[in-house]
Amino acid sequence: MKLKTALSLALKKPPRTSDEFEKLPKHVAIIMDGNGRWAKKHKLNVSRGHRQGTETLREIIRHTDDLGIGALSLYAFSTENWNRSEEEVAALMQLILDFFASEIDELDAKNVRILILGDKSRLPEKQRETLIEAENRTRKNTGLRLNIAVNYGGRAELVMAAKEIATLVRNGDIRAEEITEQTISDHLYTRGQPDVDLLIRTSGEQRLSNFLLYQNAYAEFVFPTVLWPDFTVHDYDQALDAFAHRNRRFGGRV
User: Fold this and answer.
1) Considering only CA atoms, which of 81, 68, 73 is closest in space to residue 15?
2) Which CATH topology does 23-75+82-152+189-221+233-241 take?
3) Is the dihedral of CA 203, 208, 214, 216 positive or negative?
4) What residues contact 132, with CB distance under 8 A and at least 6 apart?
5) Domain range list for the chain
6) 191's torsion region: left (phi>0), alpha (psi -120 to 50) or beta?
7) What are phi and psi of 141, to 5 degrees?
8) What UniProt keywords apply to this chain's record, in alphabetical order (predicted)?
């Protein structure tokens, strides 16, 4: 059976024991780009673009879970996004509340574990409490790891890890020469999870934008030109199929 055929059947029966399942990524990261351009294209307010993007988000999360992929990381709000207009920032903050109000019951029932990547301290109180509650409520769940990056920056994450490790060295808990790549991984927000296998950025833009810089070291990249609100499960399956046909050498030779 071809991978794309297996994927099309995944909602009914995930290919958990098939060869196709082995070709699926264990960790997918998505930069959900194009909401603003979608709104402009349809002559709508940018907040409508973000809201429509949330509809896409629901379907992609469900499909990822149904496929049995272990981790999904979503770039929802970067540290640089505070520089956008007050109106747009307010709309994005409201979407945080709306999304969890409508989705948390289903996510919890489906055994999804939610982890927020980023500094929650700068967020408004309601949003901060909502995110903390979602993490606490799903903490013991053992299914899909849903990582949502909010007020996140990849460089800031590395600085955080460096400070934590420096504190351990200063306190004598570890010697500097004992620091390894695993040590760094253990002090990232995604500690305990596999590195990203596949990074998808919609809208045709081809850059990381400070997202999971360490975790994407050996990720395969796919850049569909479709804007995020128009990104479908079929588009997602095409990206997964492209990943399955990549020759991943991790610095070696075939």
Assistant:
1) 68
2) Undecaprenyl pyrophosphate synthetase (3.40.1180)
3) positive
4) 116, 120
5) 23-75+82-152+189-221+233-241
6) beta
7) -70, 150
8) Transferase
Give the max Cα distance, the chain: 59
CA distance 13 to 62: 13
- Residue 22: predicted pLDDT: 78
Size of the chain, expressed as the number of residues it contains: 254
Contact of 38 with 52, CB cutoff 8 Å: yes
pLDDT digits (tens, 9 = 90+) for 180-203: 999 999 999 999 999 999 999 999
pLDDT in tens, 127-178: 999 999 999 999 999 999 999 999 999 999 999 999 999 999 999 999 999 9
What is the structure's pLDDT at 217? 97
- The DSSP secondary-structure symbol of 156 reads H
Catalytic residues: 33, 81
DSSP E strands in the chain: the ranges are 27-31, 71-78, 113-117, 145-152, 198-201, 220-222
